[in-house]
Structures are given as structure tokens and as C-alpha cells.
Amino acid sequence: MSNSLSAIAQTKWQQSYQLLLIISLLLIAVVTPFAATSYGAASISANDVLQVFSHKILGLGENQGVTERIIWELRLPRVILAFIAGAGLSIAGSVLQTVTRNPLADPYLFGISSGASFGAVVVLTLFSQSILWLSLPLGAFIGASLSVLMVLGLCGRNLSTQVERMLLSGVAISFMFGAMASLLLYFSSPQAAASVLFWSLGSFAKASWTGLILPAIIVSICTLVILLFKRQIIAMRAGDETAHTLGINVGRLRLSMLLLCSLITAILVANCGGIGFIGLMVPHTVRLLFPGRYPLLLTAAIGGLFMVWVDVLARTLLSYQELPVGIITAVMGSIFFLFILGSRSAKRT
Amino acid sequence: MSSQASETVLTVRGLGWKLNGQSILSDIEFSLAKGQMLGIIGPNGAGKSSLLRCLYRFIKPTSGEIHLFGQPISVLSAKAFAQQIAVVLQDTPHHFEMTTSQLVNLGLTPHKSAFEFTNADDRDVVAQALIKVGLADKANQAYESLSGGEKQRALIARAIVQRPQLLILDEPTNHLDIRYQIQTLELLHTLNITVITSIHDLNLASALCDELLLLDNGRCLAKGTPKTVLTEQRIGEVFDVCCEVKPHPQHGNPLISYFYGYEPGSKSHHGLDAGGNNV
Question: What's the CA gap between A337 and B250, in Å, rounded?
């Protein structure tokens, strides 16, 4: 009896703890758009930001001129793109880790990022500069899709059963595309090499309202479909054979989830470059904060907010120039990776 | 339980399965009446798990037919199939981060469409199943933290939530101490559904199954009540042991005692004295 009482007490405590977490997250979510747009090269006060928002959204007050343009045309799309990227990569990571039952799976699993880099390199080095604005995302997207299709082709009919084979194929494809991209860069102009490097390190600097449309639509639709299959995805955690006995077509579900996650990743890589480790860090953190639960939407929200603040860091860390976001996430991610490894081996001993 | 045996739940005819040209199962035939508990017995590698996997469609037999309520199981959709047959397997993966009630909740999967969320009725069904297997106080505990017997009962609770016509279990008593072995099989009896289970312990099978199917090298050697299947000679031949079969003092089904130190192949203990020494 005392056992059950302590179990109930533990749940009560857990519930209030999780409620507290969610309330603080909501607060952060409300503050973030205003705070995140006030940081940057030009210092803009929180008051100015509020005035711009009230003028643009509620039609109150006056046009703030340059300040309004900076906030509305440059920083807000950037903040939104960062949010979409963080949310998309986090949800993709969470789903991939579940359907492949590999806690270290990442949206870049299938060599998506190196495929995308290769596509970008092809566009930047072989095509003229005039069509660049259109074709860099397109080239990256084609490259990313190509790598996914190659991994799927290599695994063939074993896809549903051999997760290891799939992961290894991803590594091989990744190296192959990396080598081809390096080869092209080796024979190209230093200018092209520099822009490829900048792109591949990841940045939201090119964000614009029109550029937001496609990532927003694709990430939302994929997320919606994933949410509809949440029950099946959770059941996959019990193992393929058990999932099969629960009426799930395991092979088909895994394949469609892989394709959805690849689509999310490809569109984000194409628009923001290679931003690694978000899909690994955020789902793991959510798992630590909400043990035993599988809050997909919350994972997306936390990932989005996290990405926005990493981008703020990228804008403000150095006073004279921006840092690529990919470098910051990579530093944080590698430390996080070691932390997971450490806590796992500690658990085992 | 056998008194209500009328409707046939499952019919298996001429079932065979080959893996890389090698025959794993051949010519399996049996049928199962509603409410019965069928135990699949046989030595390691006899094909028990393969037979079960054919029954729950995880592998596709190379020959033969399996009918569920007169309908070939191959025509059912994955979902419709899972609404009628629930399966309890031996192992769950490591790092299985779920609470007991979340695990039991998985049993609702085949009954839910994409747009349906867990509602109050579902929570009630899950709670009832947990009460039935005696795990109500462990509902919010991590599944990984449960003992072996509790884990098995949690998996059975998940199967109850699935509301199946037929429950298939693969070695449900493995790794359990004798108390949990008996508890698990008795629990299955109280559920009042048709059960097929593979089982290693012949005495347990004898005591708690209505019918037994003896497999050896992928073939069905005998099928019937424990009394007809578990004979001294048959057990000796199939398992290559020396044993004696007597009626159990409580239920009268065969009770098997094994003898040690016999000549391999003699399959008879008549050359041994009471202490098991050769005479």
C-alpha cells in the first residue's frame, strides 16, 4: 500500500513539475518574438520593437522608418525561419530515433546534408551567378533527395528489417557526396568555394518573407501527418514484431516516416544550410525533461525556440560580424553527445 | 472450459514453411475450438516459434492454409487481423522508456483511427486491464523497473486491451520463477478467451493446457489432451530423456518425473534403482 501511495505522490509531483515546465516554456514563447528581434547589429530597444509590432499588426502608432524595416523585413522573417528550422529538425530527429530505434539517429542520417552540399556546390560552381537565388535551394534539395533515394535503393527490400544496413548506407553515401563536392570545389574559383563554405555552415541571414513560404508549408504538412501517426510511431518503440502484432504495417510506416523526415530535412538544408545536432539534442533533452512521454508538438516547440536563441547568439556573440549558426550548434551538439555517452556508461556500471 | 467447445476459432491445414530451401515446418494440421487453451510443446528448434509466427502472420508459410473463423487470414487487413489476434512476445527492446499504463495503452492501437485520441473510456479500459492482472498500483511506474512476472502480466494486460478473439503467447513462462509461471498461466485461464501458447515446462503444460500439440523437427507428432500426448515413450523419444509419467495427485493429468544418470538411448529408467544408480 505504501508502495502505491508513493507512486501516486510521485505522479503528483511529476505533474506539477511538468506543468511548471510548460508554463515557463509558454512565457519564453511569448517573449521570444519581441526579444529576439531586438538583438542584432543595430541596437533597437524593446520599446521600439513593441511600437513596430503594434503598428504592423494592430495598425496603431506611426511607421518607424528604418527601424521598422530592420525588424519587419530582416529580423522577423529570420526569427520565423529559425523557429521553423529548429522545430522541423527536432521533430524529424525525434521520429527518426523512434522508428529506427537508434537513440543517436539524426535527420542527417542518410547523407542528406552532404547530398545537399553537393547539390549546392554543383549550382555554385557550374551554373551562372544570375540564377543563383533560385537554384541554390533547388540544387541543394535535389542533392538531398538524391542521397535519400540512393540509401533507399541500396537497402532495397530489406529496408523494413535492417536498420543497421540503412545507417551504414547513409554513412557511405555521405562520404561519396562529400568527396564529389570536394573534387568540384578543388577545381573551382576561391569565390565559389567561400560561398559554399558559408552556406554549408548554416545561416538564417538570407531569410525573407517569400522565402519562408515553402519551408513553412512543407514543415507544417509533414508535422501534421506525423502527428496523425503518433500512436503507430509510439508502438514502434516496442519492437518491429510487436508493432506488427498491433496491426501496424511496419515496413510501410518506417519508409513513409523516413521520407517525411527526409523531406523536412531537405527543404531546411536547402534554405538554411547544414545545421547539425539539433535533431539529436532537442529530442534527448525533451526525453530528460518529460520521462516516459512522447510529446511531439512540444519537442517541435522547444526545438524552434532553442534555434531562435541560438541564432540570436550567432548574431550577437561577436560585435563586428555574424557567426554561422551551424558552428554554434556543432559545438553545443558535440558536448551534448559526449554528455549522453557519459551518462549512458555511468548508467551501465 | 472444454464444455463450451463448439465454434472453431482457428483451422490450420497442411502448413509448411521453408527457409533457404530447408524445411522448418511441414504438414502441420490442427484446429482449435473457442475457449480452449492449446499448448505447443517440443524440444528447442522444433519449430514452435516459427509456427506461432506463421499464425500471427509475421512470416508467410510456403504451403498450407490458416483460417480464422472460416476466413483465410491472408485476406484480412493488418488492422482487422490485430483486432482479432493479440500476441505476447518474449522480449521488449532495451531503453524502453514507457510507463506500465502507456505500454498497456498500446493495445488500443488496432482499434483507433488516425484522428482518434485516447479518451476517458480508453483510460478506463486500460485501468480495468491493469486491475485484472493485479498491476493497478504500478500503472505510473516505468515498465523497465517491473519484475519479470510483472512485465509478463503487463504485456498480458496490453493483450486484454486489444480485445482479441485469440491470444498467442511465445514462451510466457520463460525466465519466471515457479510462482510467476503458475500465476501467469492461471491468469490466462481466467480471461476466458482462446489461447495458443508455446511452453517449455511439460508439467506446467500438462496441468494448465486443455490440449497439447507436440512438435519435433517441424512436424506435428501428436495432438490431443495432455493425457494422450504426454506418454513416457513419446517424451523419451522426442526429448531424449528418461522419465516416468504418473497421474498428478491434484488434477490427474500426467506428472512427469525425470531420471538422471541413465545410458543415453536407453530411454528407460527400469535399469535404475530408487537412488538413480545403475544396477
Answer: 60
Q: B38 — phi, psi (to 5°)?
A: -105, 125
Residue pair A207/A78 in contact by the 8 Å Cβ criterion: yes
Verify whether the Cβ–Cβ distance B92 to A242 is below 8 Å: yes
- For B13-70, how does the pLDDT look when each residue is reduced to its tens digit (9 = 90+)? 999 999 998 999 999 999 999 999 999 999 999 999 999 999 999 999 999 999 999 9
Identify the domain containing residue B124 by its residue range: 2-223
Q: How many CB pairs below 8 A link A and B?
A: 79
Q: What is the ipTM of this complex?
A: 0.87
Q: What are phi and psi of B212, to 5 degrees?
A: -125, 150
The alpha-carbon gap from A346 to the nearest alpha carbon of chain B, in Å, equals 14
pLDDT, tens only, A26-64: 999 999 988 888 887 777 888 888 888 888 888 777 777
| Residue from the list A10, A231, A238 with its beta carbon closest to the beta carbon of B112 | A231
CA–centroid distance for A28 within its chain: 19
Domain count for chain B, please give it. 2
Of A11, A231, A249, nearest to B78 by CB-CB distance is: A249
Question: Model-level pTM?
Answer: 0.85
Taking the domain A77-106+202-348, which CATH number applies?
A: 1.10.3470.10
The answer to whether residue B54 neighbours chain A at the CB level (below 8 Å) is no
What Rg, from alpha-carbon coordinates, does chain B have? 20
